[in-house]
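Pilot study result, target chain (454 residues):
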Amino acid sequence: MRVILLLSTIATSIAAAPLPKDHGYRGIWYSNQPTGDRYVYKYSGGFATYPQQQSPIAIYSPQVRKTFFCYGGTPEGRQRLLHMVSYFDHQTGLVPRPRILLDKQTDDAHDNPVMSVDSQGYIWIFSNAHGTARPAFIHRSSKPYSIDEFELVWEGNFSYGHPWWIPEEGFLFLHTRYTDKGRSLFWTRSADGRAWEPPVLLARFELGHYQITCRSGRRVATAFNFHPLPVGLNARTNLYYLETDDFGRTWKTVDDRIVQLPLASPENPALVHDYRREGLLVYLKTLEFDAAGRPVILFLTSKGWEPGPRNDPRIWRTARWTGWAWLIREAFRSDHNYDFGSLYIEPDGVWRIIAPTDPGPQPYGAGGEMVMWVSRDQGASWRRMRTLTRNSPRNHTYARKPVNAHPQFYALWADGDTRRPSQSWLYFTDREGTAVWRLPPRMTDEFARPERVR
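Predicted structure:
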């Protein structure tokens, strides 16, 4: 009998073992909730880098000049979720054969992994579970900056994980736990990734929450919404923000007011904007800090959860803290609630978004053609800088930003047909969008050069 441990005890370590090598990069295809109409599913497609409510999936390590990343892969010709680990070598321009960390024994892309790299260079993979039906795992590489061997250090249950390594402290791990009261936001801590403190409830009201997070130095922030009654989990609305700068000992609003946890009502000090009152749903994208250390939230609003034009307009917005108020501005529009992109706020003040905002070959399906947008006035106006993909056979989506992103490897995403199961390839682009490369679907050697496709 399998014993599922909570995030409060230490699990028995299993000795490191060499990971099997795959012969190419293939992403998981996934669908959710048939609609019975021309759009087929609520959302679907190539979801190797899904979902946004867990992070990070890629980290650049300047010590070895590599961008490490993890993703949801699949065996060739099957739809079965494999947790994959690899890297892009910025010195050689090559990628190795990806390693298979584990078979998650599901086709549910919600179980996709996230990662962290500690101060010694050890790579940590947090393998999520979608709810309580399957276990979650934590693995650590046996050597710094190496993907060859990993040991299992913990087994239990968590969903939508956000593991942030804080130097001289350890892991601050924001995550979701499924209870009879819905999706509840928790956090916990560990000095070494093996022994974990009991999880602390951050927020739970009505039917629960989704969140996005980010870290800058000792600051860790979360932006979240909630599922309102009586509509249920297909609705999500309102926008909230909290942060901590003392390893979770205290949580504060954006204007430095300490809050008492857990938040238990939609009316609370963390509220950024009340979209419930406006009848709009809120789909979270990414959260960043600007050059002044002030948070900026990227999100999308729409009138309903069903795909198709009846719920247009789907408006991408930024919410920026000015120092005295939240300033919310429209950026641009796209055709699906699950069009996902990443916001970059660069040292020179440039704001950049890489997102599938152009309709793709499956219009009103998740994703589309990938576009790079730039703002030089803190989101007051946006200019299309590059159209990254065009005339694609499948929709592109879930462009994810690496932590400490290197200009050569600035966003990672996958493609997939949104109307029917399909193959799914993985892609990346550089900071200026000068080209798009595909990770090799099939490899005959130990290393290969990604193929330039645009």
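One observation from the pilot: The domain at 14-452 is CATH 2.130.10.120 (Methylamine Dehydrogenase; Chain H). A full batch analysis is planned for the follow-on phase.
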